[in-house]
Amino acid sequence: MHIFQKAADLRSHLKTILRERRSNAIGFIPTMGALHEGHLALIRAAQADGCYTVCSIFVNPTQFNDLSDLDKYPRTPEKDAALLAKVGCDVIFMPEVEEIYPPGAIPDFEIDFEGLDEVMEGLFRPGHFKGVAQVVKRLLDLVDPGQLYMGQKDFQQVAIVRHLIRVTGFPVQLVVVPTVREADGLAMSSRNVRLSPEGRRLGSVIYQTLVAAQSKAMNGTLPGEISREAMTALSDAGFEPEYFEIVNSETLQPVQTMLEAPQVVACVAAWLEGVRLIDNMTLK
Ligand code: AMP
């Protein structure tokens, strides 16, 4: 496994790999580290597609609207490298902030997300998706992968990145990997390590709320009613829920009935013990 900190070294290595036809495609897995089985599922998906796997570990400051969240974000580089070596990842790219954003060298990147950034995470984390788009664009330019692997766990992020790829015409295929969960249903997340053992147990209520939403939707309860009940259930369990939205998977706009969109997804964000957790589930 190769580890690069400099973009120029990464680029020349990848050029050699492609020139020598040691692989047909570069599969790229961008992460912020503190890796868990959810991240490893993305690596394995890229490997299963026959890709040369490049995983980046970069805690991108521009996507944090809350500086204390950035400070507290877990960083475990040695453990991450050991996990990636164990699953047979080919390359880790671990740049410093200056490597991704050399002062003055990166033009400001603005994109019209046509409303995808104005709901849910976009409402509660102003500027978050601008930062996500900025770093994904920058990393795509550096790595130039044939395939990009992202998790369904960050459903709105996937919609934003899909839009980014469409608008920029970047020649990459986006592959979305299902959410990996703990045995009790809690979606794996780097932030889960900040929960107490009690919080960790309680965390699975988010999953239970999503499962309940799914069965209510199948039984004909209207989305608005399902959302209200889910918000109450989360508050009663000790969470501070920010939103529980039932949305059209394409536009991310809330639906009034389940018939309104071909695919409908429930998306939730809630605080527990000062940790912000998000999850989602396809209802239809
Ligand atoms: P992060 O390090 O949180 O920025 O996540 C890096 C990538 O891993 C993103 O594409 C996430 O959607 C994905 N990811 C994070 N957690 C999970 C999970 N539990 N299951 C599947 N993918 C995940």
Structural class, please? alpha/beta
CATH topology of the largest domain: Rossmann fold
Query: What is the N-to-C succession of helices and strands?
Result: EHEHEHHEHHHEHEHHHEEE
**What is the CATH homologous superfamily assignment of the largest domain?**
HUPs
**Unreliable runs:** none
Number of strands: 9
Overall shape: it is globular
- In what order do the strands lie side by side in the largest sheet? 1-4-3-2-5-6
Report the bound ligands by name, code or SMILES: adenosine monophosphate
| CATH classification class of the largest domain | Alpha Beta
In percent terms, what proportion of residues is strand?
15-25%
Number of helices: 11
Mean pLDDT: 96
Largest sheet: 6 strands, parallel
Amino-to-carboxy terminus distance: 41 Å
Number of domains: 2
The assigned CATH architecture of the largest domain is 3-Layer(aba) Sandwich
Instruction: Report helical residue fraction.
Output: 40-55%
Notes on the structure:
With 284 residues, this protein is an alpha/beta fold. It folds into two domains: 2-177, HUPs (Rossmann fold); 190-282, 2-Layer Sandwich (Pantoate--beta-alanine Ligase, Chain: A,domain 2), CATH 3.30.1300.10. The protein is built from eleven helices and nine strands. The protein has helices spanning 7-19, 37-48, 67-72, 77-87, 97-100, 121-124, 128-143, 155-168, 197-202, 204-218, 223-236; strands at residues 2-4, 26-31, 52-57, 91-93, 147-151, 173-177, 240-248, 264-272, 275-282. The strands form two sheets. Strands 1-4-3-2-5-6 form a six-stranded parallel beta sheet, with helices on both faces. Strand 5 (147-151), helix 8 and strand 6 (173-177) form a beta-alpha-beta unit. The mean pLDDT is 96. The structure holds adenosine monophosphate. Adenosine monophosphate binds next to helix 2 and strand 5.
